[in-house]
Each structure stands twice: as C-alpha cells, then as structure tokens.
Amino acid sequence: MKGIDGLELSPRKNEYLKYLLEKGGMAHTTDISAHFDLDPSTVTKAINEMSSTGLIEHMPYRGVCLTPRGREYATFLVRRHRVLGLMLSHYGLTPREACSEASKLESYVSKDVVDKICKSLGHPSMGICGRITHDKCCCCPDDE
Ligand SMILES: [Zn+2]
Ligand SMILES: [Zn+2]
C-alpha cells in the first residue's frame, strides 16, 4: 500500500469500505444506506466521490464493488480498528469500551502509527472484536 497514510478518507467513508469488505467486496447502495440508516442519496454522493480514489467501482445495476486496492485498504482499516481496540483494552477499558473508543478515533491515526503499535504488540493475531491479519507490506515495510 504505497503512498497511503490511512488518513485519506472521512470516518464515514472508512465505514463504507469496511462494510463492503464484510459483504465480500460488493453491495448495493441501498444495502449500504439501510445498514447505516442514511438517505440513499447521501450514500450515492459519497460513493461517487470515492469512485475517483480508485478504491471502489460503481457498477450500474450491480452495485458498489471494492477494487483490489480498495480491498487492501479496507483490510488495513479493519486491522487499524482491532489494533487500536486491543491497545486500549490494555489500559483498563473493557472490550466493549475499547471497541467503541477505537471506532471514534481510528480514522485520525495514521498507518505509520498503527504499524508501530502493531509491532510493539508483537503483531497480535487476535483483537478484542476479531482476528487481526498482517500483510507483509503493512507490518514489515522493510521486506517490500
Ligand atoms: Zn471493535
Ligand atoms: Zn502487524
């Protein structure tokens, strides 16, 4: 993921990407708006803005689909959430609190910082709300 610092998108757009990943990489805009309880036009507008980033493609009648780069980015977003949640749980927060606090702050934590925290935690494989995956370029940049 060269040239990405993790701060490119708004918190809500990050949530859309994670939702798409959860759905296997594709969803209809109406599914997204229903899931987030938003007006479909709000989602369509955001999706159109995001199409220009190369992370998603909007295919008429089929829906919104993650590109390979978008999938990689969304995978990073999930790792960021889980690494931060795990870190917070080490400071006395319950798993539920840690997960919720991580959701509030994650979009403002750069990839570089997440990689450093991930490394300092020993690249954990389990977070408080799911598995943490580590790809070579995320966690071991020297090997690239
Ligand atoms: Zn969580
Ligand atoms: Zn790692």
Automatic annotation (TrEMBL):
GO MF terms here are:
DNA binding; DNA-binding transcription factor activity; protein dimerization activity; transition metal ion binding
Query: What range(s) does the HTH dtxR-type domain occupy?
Result: 9-67
State the UniProt keywords alphabetically: DNA-binding, Transcription, Transcription regulation
Q: Give yes or no: UniProt keyword Ubl conjugation.
A: no
Gene3D superfamilies the UniProt entry points to: Winged helix-like DNA-binding domain superfamily/Winged helix DNA-binding domain
Q: Which domain of life is it from?
A: Archaea
Record keywords: Transcription included? Answer: yes
Parts of the chain that traverse the membrane: none
The family database entries (InterPro entries) matched by this protein are listed as: DtxR_MntR_Metal-Reg, Fe_dep_repressor, Fe_dep_repressor_sf, HTH_DTXR, Iron_dep_repressor, WH-like_DNA-bd_sf, WH_DNA-bd_sf
One Pfam family recorded for the sequence: Fe_dep_repr_C
Q: Which family does it belong to?
A: Belongs to the DtxR/MntR family.
PANTHER family documented for this protein: IRON (METAL) DEPENDENT REPRESSOR, DTXR FAMILY, IRON-DEPENDENT TRANSCRIPTIONAL REGULATOR
Protein's name in the database: Fe-dependent transcriptional regulator
